[in-house]
Amino acid sequence: MFEQSKNFSNLVGLSALLIAFSAAFFSVFGLSKLFAGAELSVIIMASSLEFGKLVAASFLYRYWDRINLLQKFYMTFATIVLIIITSAGIFGFLSNAYQGATVEFEKESTNLIFKEDRLKQLQEDKVYLKEELESAIAELPDNYRTARRKLREDYQPQISEINKQMIDLKGEIGELKTALVETGVDVGPVIYLARTFQTDIDTVVKFFIFVLIFVFDPMAVMFVISYNVALENRDEEEAEKLYVNEKKKRWWEVYGEKKKEDTPMYTEEDEQRMDIIGQNGNDGLHYEDDEKEDEKIETSIKRGGFRRR
Question: Does residue 284 lie within any of the structural domains?
């Protein structure tokens, strides 16, 4: 449908412009974050290289048969290197965006893991104290009730303190889980994918970032080349149409002359004469005699003499 449209080449050019501009923006922003100490300088340098990369790709396509081997090799190599640099900048931009979205989530996740480990440790301490208390009581004779009570009084404060800490930790863990649910909305799909493929979140994000950078900037360069192809095809089609139209022109149009209009068989004077003949009812012979007389007069004038009757 689009190929038959007259504006197809413009559509290809617009797509190339949008993709190239987006890739350049993300790359320049990402590189400026990698070299934050000279952010403005990096932006100017990266922008110039991005523009030069697109021009180099167009130049290579249009003048490939006219440039020497060294120029072909260097410009091709430089274009590929610039594509890699652009992809690295896009990787930096997306990584920074991912870290910005997950920094709070990771902070709360780390805190949750720490508290869960602490709760597990307290549970083990509680079990150990109970086992130690029961072992100490079992070693005492049955009639040593006072000693048994004394042991329980010694261990009970420790167990109570552990229980209190466990209750506090469980409350904090519940609050952290609630906060994680609210914070994890931004990275919820990534978490789901990580659980689906049984891997961590960072691995999933890296995979998608690499997929994007392998498609983004190479697609921009290919669209620029495609736009050059579309322009050449459009020029060829217009030249072919112009040639066909020139062949269809008639000889008077080719030489700049206008077509002669057909002269009518009867003039307006002849029409009036015929009307008079029709009204008078004669056959118009006297008009023929008058015409012959006029011809004789013209002949005499041409011969150089004129005689009266």
Answer: yes
CA distance 68 to 66: 7
Domain range for 275:
268-303
For range 137-149, the mean pLDDT: 74
Please classify residue 5 by burial: count the beta carbons closer than 10 Å to its beta carbon, then call 0-12 exposed, 13-18 middle and 19+ buried: exposed
pLDDT of residue 35: 82
Interval 90-123: pLDDT, tens = 888 888 888 776 777 777 778 888 888 888 888 8
Lowest mean pLDDT: which of 22-36, 57-71, 215-229, 259-273?
Answer: 259-273
Q: Are residues 72 and 206 in the same domain?
A: yes
